[in-house]
Structure prediction request, 311 residues.
Amino acid sequence: MTRLRVIFMGTPDFAVPTLEALIAEPQFDVVCVVTQPDRGVGRGQQIAHSPVKQAALAHGIPIFQPTKMKVPETRESLASYTPDVAVVAAYGRILPPSILEIPRYGCINLHASLLPRHRGAAPIAYAIWKGDKETGVGIMRMEEGLDTGPVYAEARLPIEDFDTTGTLTVKLAQSGAKALVTALPRICRGELAARPQAREGVTHSPPLAKAEGQLDVTKTAAELERQVRAMQPWPVASLTLGANKVLVGKAHVVAMSGPPGEVLHADKHGVVVACGEGALALDEVQLPGKKMIPAAAWVNGRGVAVGAKFA
Prediction:
């Protein structure tokens, strides 16, 4: 059996199950792993490897971390591996035509949404935030546009009422890995036809910024509850109380009403904040310089009381 020579391109935790699944299958030979350059993290800016690089190191696979994709040196390095196919999962960079044309069977992308909905860098968070009832992964052929290529296969998953971006990422990563290793041999044998994406229903999910975590109390409580879940584990939703930014780790909707932003209830059960429609019960909060705590503990510490006003 001739093994397929695979270049794998990915960076975060989401991509690791797919890399591991490819390595585990004898029909694939992962000849190189491409991931983003090491970066400083935390206050000390200590250099850290990406999760994908850590996995590649554990398996002794050659690693390539280009700083520029359009230079001849990058193309030459990748072409030297004579790949049959490239598998891309949350690599974090758009590939130019000079790279897309290298693999014999093209570049196949695992995207964490049901395309054409939520094209872009943060599809999982936006699926929760926008109130989608289901999501999934799409296996698509890459082209110059951002997540615009035709789709070979999909795997669908329901979005549970308790799902956060963190929990849903884990589920989609596992589902996507299984779907990818099943579809890839068929794609390379020409047994799977790719269907063009629909022109209707296109939405975009740009990278999240810290500002997206700010909750607008004039919106409905249902919208804000979804936003809280979408912003977990990063950048974490927040409200402003006086001069303090209060992070909201967990919340739920309650049937109360009042002027938006006003604290309607504050006791051992938590803190309830009026919204544009309904009210949001804060279950877990974090004050500046502190750890995430139950909102009831905040009340007990006299940090907030009925009548206080959030912005």
